[in-house]
Amino acid sequence: MTIAELCILIACLLPIVCAWIAKQKGFGKPRHEGGFDNHNPRQWLANLQGLPARAHAAQMNSFEALPIFIAGVLVAERMQAAQGTIDALAVAFVATRLAYIGAYLADRANLRSLLWVLGMGCCIAMFFVG
Predict the structure, then answer these.
(1) First-to-last CA distance in the chain?
(2) pLDDT digits (tens, 9 = 90+) for 40-96
(3) Measuring CA to CA, which residue among 26, 42, 14, 25 is closest to residue 102?
(4) Are 7 and 93 in contact (CB under 8 A)?
(5) Contacts of 29 (CB under 8 A, 6+ apart)
(6) Domain edges within the chain
């Protein structure tokens, strides 16, 4: 497994971490007291506010970013680009996504947007490194 392929796995796990952050305050409480509603989770998540709502939004955006990242790694490897370059771009993507999630949770909108652009730039670059 290459470093870039390991980064795919890490990127796939990031939305799960965000989901845990979003849902953690509802765990262990009864539904009638605002606890997590596993019978209607989407509605429960839609009613979140503050940090849990931002964590949920980061989760959704993390899922949205996965296809272009995975495709970029696989296309670059298929084109037999230099593995070191692919690995560096993949690590940079994961680093920007971690910082993006941190910026989202901290409600730093401009920084978050910049990090999103940088991460997408890494993905797009992988299509042209071959």
Answers:
(1) 19
(2) 989 999 999 999 999 999 999 999 999 999 999 999 999 999 999 999 999 999 999
(3) 14
(4) yes
(5) 35, 36
(6) 3-23+51-126
Rounded distance between C-alpha atoms, residue 13 and residue 7, angstroms: 10
User: For residue 97, which of 59, 44, 48, 124 has the smallest C-alpha distance?
Assistant: 59
Confidence (pTM): 0.94
Q: How far apart are CA 99 and CA 14, in angstroms?
A: 12
Could you tell me where the beta strands, DSSP code E, fall in 3-130?
Answer: none
Encoded tokens for 30: 């009864």
> Quick one: pLDDT at residue 97?
98
pLDDT for position 33: 84
DSSP letter for 37, please.
Answer: -
Give me the architecture of the 3-23+51-126 domain, per CATH: Up-down Bundle (1.20)
